[in-house]
């Protein structure tokens, strides 16, 4: 490989790997004619291709090339040029990973398919003709894009529906949508499955090490895979290094590879789980179809729980792949094991005083998703909520699939009650679908032009415009990728803040709160940002939601209480001021002691303004603080049904209320030496049969130092020997004093011996 300033030398582990072509037959036996002066990119691709076992499809991930050539922009530009020149063919692997393959290798795959057809006795002529046309179409180089529409196949190849089905069965095409396909190499799914398993084993192996790092000497004897599909360690290292998941560190004992913080965030649950589909198919998510009178809409099954819901996306995340190049953590590793077990139960709320007009304080997706969330859980509000959601989708978005599905559900609810149904606006569906497709093609063409001109600001704006369009169409995953890609082109603090807020907004909608926290930290460390107070308020509110989702109520309360009232309705696409009052108040009540309630809640001028918007929460806080537990519990019971319809709070409301009740029981008993449990039961609006087990649990948890006199129904403080307690405290203070004295004597000796590190002048 030519030595240039952009090229990195392979490490010793790579040079001496036991998984080299000496033990496994690789594609090096089919050399690539590079010419006299190949560029760095094609040389790197040739080097990586020669490491791939011959039994595996010779696909080279672009992230692997990034590990060899540090200038990623040059790599992207060279690959674009070589794809247009017909030297390379680009493919999408998994849900979003990009890979390249030599055009000659891909054409050989088509020739191999033709040779397989020769063995068929019946129908071989038709299949041979189809492969000949497909070979001519690929070799012509007129279409170098990853995806292709059905109409283009009809026009360029004169293909029929039956021909497309045969190409799908042969793995040369995979489904992307109802009328669009992804061009793919054969056995790409097997390649990606083997590669994912090897990569997961590699990461899990390093994570088991004491310091999450491994020396080169151990890599020399490590294998990943089995049989003829053993993958060269150099391929795994190249991908993880190019994706930013591992980094090499020089030590006196040689190079050591260690995981980066990014890898810790992504592989929290020990690895990723890839789909079983081949390159780029939408079926990397489990799919189902909803059939209307005229339309068949392909949708994610987890839509039954709103996609912005933090817990609903845990199911979705288990089948999503990870885009390492774009630092998008939407895979299963973004959700910890304990959270995956806490699946939200869809409770039916039949009695509520909730007013749908309260949702007018939200904007955009937040309003629609909350309406759908309420419709799924509250039969009395179902029809009106679905009706409003359909109206907002039609008026303010281009999300056709969601509009059709919501309308179908509205009609199901109407039919169940014997009311006339609402027809789908087919004219709007057709018009919006065409407009969305045209706008996507236009924005992609503009972005490609900006990349060719290498104007950073234009590229940044192009990614943002495309991300906004995807977001408006309901494609949050692609929107997140576009927003994340702008990080390479930001030039001012405002650009950094805008990029972070876009990623945070979409990540919250996807339920990927681990990703949210990392971008919150990045935005907080950005200096000289305009409208700093509003930005910080948004970041505090986002951090509050992150900690609420993980049930860290004390930290969530801290962030909500620190949210400036300047936020008001500037973050209505995520949260409203009323939400901050409710979330902050309940989290504080469940986790703060009396002193913290006074100093951090009642004496907090900003939060007092939020509480003015929610008088019920304010009354709840004051009744608890003033030990009016009967009033406090009555207010909580009145609020419970409405809070179960809250988007972010519904899955945590039972735990919050249990914690508040537990605190109230402890606080009630703390001033007394003994308590009549009959009076205590009356104060908590319950009976002694239910109260006694609650107190027994508190005693077992050492939350209350007491004993129950079950015969007399009296709770008595467990007496402690104060004399022994004072002696123990005295001994503890003496030991501490002795330790401090030894430190002082050591310091004096060091000063006397002039063993002091002085500042340089």
In words, what does this structure look like?
- This protein has 761 residues and is mainly alpha-helical.
- Among the domains are: 1-284, no CATH class; 285-309 and 344-424, no CATH class; 672-717, Arc Repressor Mutant, subunit A, CATH 1.10.10.10; 720-761.
- Helix content is 55%, strand content 8%.
- The chain is built from 33 helices and 14 strands.
- The strands form 5 sheets. The chain has a 3-stranded antiparallel beta sheet with strand order 1-3-2, with helices on both faces.
- Helix 5 (103-118) packs antiparallel against helix 6 (124-140).
- Residues 433-460 form a coiled coil.
Uncertain stretches of 5 or more adjacent residues:
1-24, 267-345
Number of helices: 33
| Spatial arrangement of strands, main beta sheet | 1-3-2
* Overall 3D form: globular
Radius of gyration: 31 Å
> Which structural class best describes the helix and strand composition?
mainly alpha
Quaternary assembly:
single chain
Main location: cytoplasm
Subcellular location: Cytoplasm; Nucleus
Keywords: Coiled coil, Cytoplasm, Nucleus, Signalosome
Family: Belongs to the CSN1 family.
């Amino acid at each position: 490989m030519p030595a240039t300033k952009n090229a990195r030398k392979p490490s010793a582990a790579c040079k001496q790997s036991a998984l080299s072509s000496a033990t496994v037959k690789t594609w090096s036996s089919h050399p690539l004619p590079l010419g006299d002066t190949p560029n760095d990119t094609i040389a790197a691709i040739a080097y990586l291709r020669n490491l791939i076992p011959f039994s595996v499809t010779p696909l080279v991930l672009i992230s692997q090339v990034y590990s060899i050539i540090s200038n990623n922009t040059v790599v992207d530009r060279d690959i674009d040029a070589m794809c247009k020149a017909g030297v390379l063919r680009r493919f999408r692997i998994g849900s979003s990973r990009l890979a390249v393959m030599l055009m000659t290798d891909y054409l050989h795959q088509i020739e191999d398919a033709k040779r397989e057809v020769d063995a068929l006795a019946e129908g071989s002529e038709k299949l041979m003709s189809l492969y000949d046309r497909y070979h001519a179409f690929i070799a012509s180089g007129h279409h170098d894009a990853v995806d292709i529409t059905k109409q283009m196949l009809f026009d360029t190849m004169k293909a029929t529906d039956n021909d497309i089905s045969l190409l799908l069965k042969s793995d040369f095409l995979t489904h992307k949508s109802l009328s669009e396909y992804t061009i793919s190499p054969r056995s790409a799914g097997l390649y990606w499955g083997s590669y994912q398993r090897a990569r997961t084993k590699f990461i899990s192996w390093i994570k088991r090490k004491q310091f999450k790092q491994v020396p080169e000497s151990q890599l020399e004897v490590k294998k990943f895979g089995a049989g003829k599909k053993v993958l060269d360690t150099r391929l795994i290292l190249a991908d993880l290094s190019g994706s930013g998941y591992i980094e090499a560190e020089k030590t006196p004992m040689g190079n050591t590879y260690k995981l980066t913080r990014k890898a810790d965030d992504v592989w929290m649950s020990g690895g990723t789980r890839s789909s079983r589909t081949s390159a780029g198919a939408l079926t990397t998510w489990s799919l189902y179809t909803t059939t209307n009178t005229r339309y068949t809409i392909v949708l994610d099954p987890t839509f039954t729980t709103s996609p912005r819901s933090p817990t609903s996306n845990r199911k979705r995340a288990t089948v999503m792949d990870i885009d390492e190049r774009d630092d998008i953590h939407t895979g299963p590793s973004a959700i910890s094991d304990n959270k995956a077990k806490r699946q939200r139960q869809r409770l039916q709320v039949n009695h509520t005083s909730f007013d749908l007009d309260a949702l007018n304080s939200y904007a955009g997706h937040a309003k629609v998703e909350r309406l759908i969330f309420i419709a799924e859980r509250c039969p009395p509000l179902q029809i009106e909520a679905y009706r409003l959601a359909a109206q907002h989708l039609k008026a303010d978005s281009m999300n056709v699939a969601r509009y059709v599905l919501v309308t179908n559900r509205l009609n199901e609810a109407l039919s169940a009650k014997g009311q006339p149904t609402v027809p789908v606006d087919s004219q709007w569906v057709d018009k919006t679908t065409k407009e969305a497709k045209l706008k996507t093609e236009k924005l992609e063409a503009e972005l490609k032009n900006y990349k060719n001109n290498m104007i950073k600001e234009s590229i940044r704006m192009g990614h943002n415009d495309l991300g906004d369009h995807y977001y408006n169409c309901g494609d949050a995953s692609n929107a997140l990728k576009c927003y994340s890609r702008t990080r390479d082109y930001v030039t001012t603090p405002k650009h950094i803040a805008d990029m972070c807020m876009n990623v945070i907004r979409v990540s919250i909608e996807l339920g990927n709160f681990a990703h949210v926290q990392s971008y919150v930290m990045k935005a907080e460390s950005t200096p000289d940002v305009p409208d700093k107070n509003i930005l910080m308020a948004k970041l505090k509110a986002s951090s509050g939601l992150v900690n609420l989702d993980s049930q860290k109520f004390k930290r969530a309360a801290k962030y909500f209480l620190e949210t400036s009232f300047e936020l008001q309705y500037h973050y209505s696409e995520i949260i409203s001021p009323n939400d901050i009052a409710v979330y902050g108040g309940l989290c504080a009540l469940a986790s703060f002691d009396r002193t913290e309630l006074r100093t951090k809640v009642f004496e907090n001028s900003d939060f007092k303004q939020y509480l003015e918007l929610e008088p019920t929460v304010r009354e709840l806080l004051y009744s608890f603080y003033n030990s009016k537990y009967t009033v406090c519990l009555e207010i909580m019971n009145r609020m419970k049904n409405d809070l179960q319809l809250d988007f972010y709070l519904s899955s945590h409301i039972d735990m919050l209320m249990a914690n508040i009740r537990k605190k109230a029981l402890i606080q009630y008993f703390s001033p007394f030496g003994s308590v009549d449990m009959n009076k205590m039961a009356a104060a908590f609006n319950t009976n002694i049969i239910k109260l006694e087990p609650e107190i027994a649990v508190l005693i077992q948890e050492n939350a209350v130092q007491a004993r129950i006199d079950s015969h007399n129904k009296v709770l008595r403080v467990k007496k402690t020997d104060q004399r022994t307690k004072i002696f123990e405290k005295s001994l503890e203070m003496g030991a501490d004093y002795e330790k401090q004295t030894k430190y002082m004597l050591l310091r004096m000796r060091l000063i006397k011996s002039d063993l002091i590190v002085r500042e340089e002048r």
